[in-house]
Design goal:
Strand 18 and strand 19 form a beta hairpin. The chain is built from 6 helices and 25 strands. Strands 1, 2, 7, 8, 22, 23, 24 and 25 form an 8-stranded antiparallel beta sheet that branches. The chain has a 4-stranded antiparallel beta sheet with strand order 11-10-9-16, with no helix packed on it. A 4-stranded antiparallel beta sheet has the order 13-14-12-15. The chain has 2 domains: 187 residues, Ribbon (Umud Fragment, subunit A), CATH 2.10.109; 55 residues, 2-Layer Sandwich (Alpha-Beta Plaits). The protein is an alpha+beta fold.
């Protein structure tokens, strides 16, 4: 084999691999334990991109730039090839973290993995450990971890009762994370545990929202404007403001209605303690979704290899 032919083979192989990663499959490393017992920090997962359609990169990162100001911008907005199907509830998706500022191109923002629990057109309500979609209580995975709390004075006895899980202390309160099955088993076993350890709910664990969908037309009034203005201005590539003379302006033109340009999704982690989901950054636009996880390529800590990810 001549050197010239070998070079051509290598070039074609690199191009094919690049096209596969861009349009079909790509791998990502899990950076945290946000997905409870499903995925662990350090796991590498395979992600398919044809569910919603593959995205065309908005920019190419300059590896020699620390500030990101010299990134090669390919388009002002993110574009997506038409997909073959749609996302489903409880799909584990990989996406770029939503940010109100558009200074960083979408595909160069931090990559997160979370579970899709709210689909376009649905009403989602979170009340502590309970999740409702269209007023129907949803069953979470059996290995989902919930936060429980107790007074610091009870720490010795509680840790003696259940030493397997880590405990965290803040002032005079201790916290731990357990599955519902673990909590029920311990509560039945120990009356003291049942009376001292209670489910914990912070202000992050309460929300209620409608998930907009592409083509949904919104009548603008004081309530709808204040509810959706930030989301529209951040992700819809337009400018919606209140007019000084009353009414509303869309890109400087007076309007009474607004039609959404893309679908949105609500995501939650299986581990209640990790807040990098819709509890903090809100809804995830379709333009930010990279794809859906298929299987674990390998797990350095759990010794898993080519293992399917259950829904």
């Amino acid at each position: 084999m001549t050197l010239k032919r070998l070079i051509w083979i290598l070039v074609v192989a690199v191009l094919i691999a690049g096209l596969v990663r861009l349009f079909l499959l790509d791998s990502f490393r899990v950076a945290s334990g946000a997905m409870s017992e499903t995925l662990f920090s350090g796991d590498r997962v395979m992600v398919e991109k044809w569910t919603l359609g593959s995205r065309i990169p908005q920019a190419i990162a300059n590896p020699f730039s620390k500030s990101g100001t010299t990134n090669l911008i390919l388009a002002s907005t993110a574009h997506r090839i038409p997909g073959l199907s749609q996302l489903h509830r409880n799909d584990l998706i990989v996406f770029n973290q939503p940010q109100k500022s558009d200074s960083i191109p979408i595909n160069l923002r931090p990559v997160l993995i979370s579970r899709c629990v709210g689909l376009p057109g649905e009403v989602v309500q979170l009340e502590g450990q309970r999740l409702f979609v269209n007023k129907i209580l949803q069953r979470k995975r059996v290995d989902a971890l919930y936060c429980f709390y107790y007074h610091a004075s009870a720490k010795p006895s509680i840790q003696k009762t259940y030493p397997k899980r880590p405990f965290y202390t803040s002032h005079d309160t201790c916290f731990t994370f357990l599955t519902k099955h673990e909590y029920s088993r311990l509560a039945k076993k120990s009356t003291a545990f049942r009376s001292l350890v209670r489910p914990y709910m912070s202000h992050f664990d309460t929300l209620k929202t409608f998930v907009p969908y592409k083509g949904m037309t919104l009548a603008l009034d004081s309530v709808s404007f204040h509810t959706w203005q930030d989301l529209i201005n951040a992700y819809e590539h337009c400018r919606l403001v209140a007019s000084k003379n009353g009414g509303y302006l869309l890109n400087g033109i007076r309007t009474t209605h607004y039609t959404f340009q893309q679908d949105y999704f609500l995501v939650l982690n299986d581990h209640q303690g990790y807040l990098n989901d819709s509890r903090t950054f809100g809804l995830v636009p379709a333009s930010h979704i990279i794809g859906r996880t298929l299987f674990v390529l390998f797990s350095p800590t759990e010794k898993r290899f080519l293992e399917l990810i259950p829904r």
